[in-house]
Design a protein that fits this description.
This protein has 221 residues and is mainly α. The chain contains ten helices and no strands. It is elongated, with a radius of gyration of 31 Å.
Amino acid sequence: MAQAPRSSSLAGLSDDPLENLTMWLQANSKPLLIGLAGAVVVASGIFGYRYLNNAKVQEASAALYQAQVPLLQGNLPEAQAALQRVATRYNGTRSGEQASLLLAQALYDLKQHQGAITMLEKARGSASADTRSSFDAMIAAGYEGLGNLDKAAEFYGKAAAGVTFTQEKQQHKTAQARSLMLAGKLDDARKIFLELSEDSNSQYAQEARVRLGEIAGAGVK
């Protein structure tokens, strides 16, 4: 009985599997090398990115440390310039975010509240999700400095909504309620203080009860 002819793809194959593998490797050596080269390039790129990223983080940390020296010395103008350089150059890093927050505090001390708020709102856009609440709280403090208590309350509320730790959330809620109270929005403030007062384990419960008494007294008048 005649054997069926081998297909072209099987032509030239022997009965020795090692010989067949050798022949296959020879035939496909160029595609294999191209694939291997591509894998090496990708791996090198990932390693290079990680190396450069780690180097940038370390460099940013060192720059932030140096920028804090004039701040600790009370030299606010020099601290402002140094922190601005770090915040700009290392935008997107933890040190860059910290520099922005410290810069805002320096600007507040220089009574430049609006400039600080503008800077913070811009930096917040590229901040990591878990630090945005810190930016919101700092922006709120700036609006307090400007006497815009409605905006202060709004951003303290955002800060509270952006955190998961109970104590930190209650801290921002307390600040929000204070701003609402000072803005004359007693009903809104009362709701927050009432919630805080009901948590016997909260360090803000006592203040909340005091504020509720003050709000009640204001209502009597």
